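User: Predict the complex with manganese (II) ion.
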Amino acid sequence: MDNNRIHELRERLDGINGELLKLLSERASIGIEIGEIKKSEGLPFHDPVRENEMLDRLAARNEGPFEDAVIRHLFKEIFKATLQLQQPAGKPQLLVSRKSKTEDTIIRIKGTAIGGSDSVLVAGPCSVESAEQVMEVAASLKRAGVPVIRGGAFKPRTSPYDFQGLGFEGLVMLKEAADEFGLLTISEIVDPRHLERAADYVDIIQIGARNMHNFELLKAAGDMRKPVLLKRGLAATLDEFLHAAEYIVSRGNSEVMLIERGIRTYEKWTRNTLDISAVPILKQQSHLPVLVDVSHSTGRKEIMAPCAKAALAAGADGIMVEVHPNPPAALSDADQQLDIGEFEQFVREVKASGLYRQSVP
Ligand code: PEP
Ligand code: MN
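Assistant: Here is the predicted structure with manganese (II) ion placed in the model:
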């Protein structure tokens, strides 16, 4: 008897499922037609105000047994599915995505190409400390065939009592040393108000890990027409990293390079954890050049060369490394900077690996 009743009720449920499916399909067809009108009129597909009105009306008409929250949840799913029909690719494509631009972005600066067929090395002190210091480093870069010198002049330090950098004076020293040896310059800018003035001294603006989520700085860098090296935030997901790059590119500055510099994990034997998997993922997801900073990620001199080789093997377009004439006396990152001899050995090893792409050796 009970079995018969269940059978009968199940048949009714099947009938209702069929009715619901018919209604859902009818609703979807109307949604698609609305989507086409919106598209032709350039209106946004998603209308959160209208969505809330519909949910409020449904909740007001709800007589149970489902709670209002359940009804809202169910209908929200239906709305979401309809929106996906209107907009087949889901969310609008990011400009930094490979789906928006399939070919690699190549950033050309005074004869150096970043992101093309050749690998690039970027090296220099953590901080610019004196004219002599950067001059000595620049000379060693020239000897080693490294085209880009880095050096921080505005240092985002953990402690306000630590060396904060020489500011614009440091940028002048960096540029003088670079000009002497025909190198490109890269330096971190932390204040949007400094960008324009800094552009006279730097060929590439660095946005540091701590500022990857500084949206006003990203927007201001996006308004510049100057290449930007964007570092991955200390705890940023790759999705957040790409969206940070999108802030720059969406304002018209398409010359953005991404750099993996290690993320925070529980591991203490390295300064950060070099996320090598970020390299092929970023290369697959985005057309922007991808570099790896082996200094801030590892913090350990003896593993920098193998990590650089791993990065190149994974598809990185370039490597950044810190070098200082007298690391123990450095005013920042003393433990991780290579001395000039170690740096020259590092470059030799990386270049000899067969992984460093160089059309003119
Ligand atoms: C740097 O490259 O000078 C630096 C401070 O690195 P990060 O922003 O990756 O910590
Ligand atoms: Mn440093």
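The longest strand covers residues 120-124.
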